[in-house]
Amino acid sequence: MLMRLAPRLRAALDLTRAGKLASATRSIQRALADQTVETSQLGISPKIIDLASEEWTATEPSASPNPTTLHRIGHDQTTRNRRPLRDAVDALNRLKHGRLFPVPRPAGKRCPPHVPAGARFETRSISLGAGSRSYKVYVPAQTLAEPRSLLIMLHGCTQDPDDFAAGTRMNQLAEETGFIVAYPAQPKSANPSSCWNWFNPSHQSREIGEPAIVAALTLRLIAEFTIDRRRVFAAGLSAGGGMAAILGATYPDLYSGIGIHSGLPYRAASDVVSALAVMRGQEAPGVPRGKNSGEASNGAVVPTIVFHGAADKIVHPSNAAKIINLDQERWESYQASDCTGRGYRRMVARDAGKRIIAEHWLIEGGGHAWFGGSVDGSYTDPLGPDASREMVRFFWNIADV
After folding, report:
1. What is the CATH number of the domain that holds 262?
2. Residue 16: predicted pLDDT
3. Which domain holds residue 194?
4. Distance from C-alpha of 133 to C-alpha of 125, rounded to nearest angstrom
5. Has residue 23 been placed in a domain?
6. Among the four residues 192, 215, 280, 392, which has the most C-beta atoms within 10 Å?
7. Stretch 340-364: mean pLDDT, rounded?
8. Tell me, what's the pLDDT at 353?
9. Is residue 29 part of a domain?
10. What confidence tens digit (pLDDT) does each residue in 97-149 have?
11. Considering the entire predicted model, what is its pTM?
């Protein structure tokens, strides 16, 4: 099946070299659409890898109880940003060579971040008793929307603020929507791989360690930009997602919504050994998972949206379901597919007033990468739903109720 993509891929590349970008894009879209149809006809299902046993098992996604509801609640595929041509070509090359899982972007090939005239992308720092960190703040050129909003973005291991901003395209969304976005940086002095220490008990509680540092810079930005306290959010990828879960649990009075992409549950591990077990999809024996003052009795901390690849080989996808621990009867399931990208299963949970308070996105065939991201950053997958845009939509819906 992948071999059938090669002629169309070559044709698209020839059109690109000839400067016929619109025709090249149409060729790529047709190739991907045909592949999606063929896969469906063959009955191929996504596969989940169990890192503990290294055995592949197939899973059948459940059917949507109401396929039309997905559109009704606001998910309109026509509102997506069109993917840049280079992202589509990169995605097809990955498929052609069987490279379903993104790799870090080679050093020295990163493009400098684009900052429009009138916008600012500033490097700052903060120091307090818990430690110090640098961070970058993006202030869009357009007038900030009222009431004002703030989003804290926590990068994954081996990444930095510039890399994460490029890969998620969150600065571009800030320009569209008029919010402030900040990217705290984890130095190698705090972790050799620049990972947030989500597995360390010294960084899992309120007013200590890394959560205290991120909360302090959040409060500083709230005061500087007169942010509405109901419109403060945090999101992260992988280890950054694990730290976002900690922020939601320890500072539910500060963050109104949390986004966790390919991340891990709060207090799922207490050291490196238990962290590796959790990442493989195993329960870490002897790790206390007790609630703290910020965790609700049903397991939800604050309204949370979770993205995870069904074939993630680095953080097992079973972690996504554990992050949002709600009663099964509260979930509504919808099956959907973007004809130019990966299919996915989207589940939503509502409160008594029918307001969506949690979303769980499982991306078919997706690896450990930010979906809908740009190849200008590392650990991104241009295929699939636009995680950045969907997170912002989720956060704004929370704030506007």
Report:
1. 3.40.50.1820
2. 55
3. 120-400
4. 6
5. no
6. 392
7. 91
8. 85
9. no
10. 333 344 455 445 567 778 999 999 999 999 999 899 999 999 999 999 999 99
11. 0.74
